[in-house]
Design brief:
Blueprint lengths: L5 E7 L4 E7 L6 E9 L6 E6 L4 E6 L8 H15 L4 E8 L10 E2 L2 H8 L9 H14 L4 E6 L18 H5 L9 H14 L7 E6 L5 E6 L2 E5 L20 H9 L5 H10 L2 H6 L5 H6 L3 H25 L4 E5 H6 L1 H10 L9 H6 L12 E4 L4 H18 L1
Parallel strand pairs: 1-6, 6-8, 9-12, 12-13
Antiparallel strand pairs: 1-2, 2-3, 3-4, 4-5, 7-8, 9-10, 10-11
């Protein structure tokens, strides 16, 4: 049996890396296996599962692995042993920020990687984590093709006024503008929506990607026309540990009157705010929903208030709302959150069917809802696999 043509997709999080290995010789990438690299445990581990979730491989390292190099070597060795040494064609990376220059996937060179590292101030929490595996894999297997797929690319067509800040134009000319994020998720969900309900593609749609990181995207004709995140992934909705939109005067106050440094404020906004900051107990929505503490309810109330408020803002951009889609860990699994957001948007004609919502059905709108409402699980990894397959085909044809 010939070795499959495969792409390894890496999706780097704050403490671990999700990955999927996809067969790309078929029209649609097919998942061969998936897993997790967790290099921040006391004993770093690699876990590999089959496409159906069955256990395939697990390995722990006795020593701390600061750059994850040993785990990546273990992962590559597993792929070679199971699928053949010639199977792996490329590695695809989710890169959070592509800046103004990247509207689609790109093969990573040392020069491009350096330029992406220069964007770290625009995504200080995410960009280094996304790029670290690129350097590690280059050292382990220099000839292996690596491809960057950007969370900002889906929003690349954002135009004024949606893309503009009300600051002197000279800063906009230097790239200080609204970029938007979660684009790989929005791209996947928009594609799934087109397959489920083609008649809605031309309609006014808001996708709510709600999770530890959260943002909204307003779509018209399947294209992003507005979104809640801006220059950085810090803007917009309340998130697990991120503040979302905040009065800039608060930041000035913290520095001028609380004596906080720029680094202190950055840490506060990225790591100590959001659901964690308001509740004082957890950034995990599941923990808050299970709690009877008043502070937990306060955090949930603020989360749903702001989500509904900004969905209405997206509807203003669209001049109406025909379709609302929930995705992301909270959006897909937390019926109470979907219901509370729906109640706040009843004036827009949003009517959520309680039974359908509780059961997590694909369509959760009532028969008399003026807005079509869906739950569509996201899949950033297969979006990356599709982009990598297309880029490799283009390179082969050339």
């Amino acid at each position: 049996m010939p070795a499959p043509e495969a792409v390894l997709v890496l999706n780097s999080g704050s403490s671990s890396i999700k990955f999927g290995l996809f067969e790309i010789s078929t029209a649609e990438p097919a998942l061969l296996c998936k897993g997790l690299l967790d290099e921040h445990e006391a004993r770093p581990r690699l876990v590999v599962k089959g496409a159906a979730g069955e256990d395939l491989f697990e390995k722990r390292r006795d020593e701390a692995d600061a750059d994850g190099g040993h785990l990546f070597a273990d992962a590559l060795a597993f792929i070679d042993d199971r699928f053949g040494q010639d199977s792996l064609r490329a590695v695809g990376h989710r890169i959070v920020h592509g800046g103004p220059d990247h509207s689609g996937p790109v093969e990573l060179t040392d020069d491009i990687t350096a330029k992406l590292e220069a964007l770290t101030p625009l995504a200080p929490l995410h960009q280094p984590r996304c790029l670290a595996p690129v350097r590690t894999l280059s050292a382990i297997r220099p000839a292996l093709t690596q491809i960057a797929c950007f969370d900002t690319a889906f929003h690349h067509g954002l135009a004024p006024p949606a893309s503009r800040f009300a600051i002197p134009r000279r800063f906009e000319q230097r790239g200080v503008r609204r970029y938007g994020f979660h684009g790989l998720s929005f791209e996947y969900v928009a594609g799934r929506l087109a397959g489920i309900a083609p008649q809605l593609v031309a309609k006014r749609t808001v996708i709510a990607h709600l999770g530890n990181g959260a943002s909204l995207c307003a779509l018209r004709d399947g294209r992003s026309v507005d979104t809640t995140m801006g220059l950085t992934p810090l803007d917009g909705l309340v998130m697990g540990t991120r503040s979302g939109t905040i009065d800039p005067g608060v930041l000035l106050y913290l520095q001028q009157h609380e004596g906080m440094s720029v680094e202190d404020v950055q840490h506060l906004l990225y790591h100590e705010s959001g659901l964690l900051g308001v509740s004082g107990m957890s950034a995990d929505m599941r923990t808050l929903l299970a709690s009877r503490e008043a502070a937990a309810r306060d955090a949930i109330d603020l989360f749903t208030f702001r989500a509904a408020q900004e969905i209405a803002m997206m509807a203003t951009t669209l001049q109406g709302l025909d379709c609302l889609v929930f995705t992301g860990g909270i959006g897909e699994h937390a019926s109470e959150i979907r219901g509370a957001i729906g109640e706040r948007l009843a004036w827009l004609g949003v009517r959520i069917d309680a039974a359908a919502n509780s059961e997590g059905r694909e369509r959760i709108g009532t028969g008399d809802s003026a807005v079509d409402i869906f739950i569509i699980p996201t899949n950033e990894e297969i979006t990356i696999a599709r982009h990598c397959a297309a880029l490799l085909r283009e390179r082969h044809a050339a």
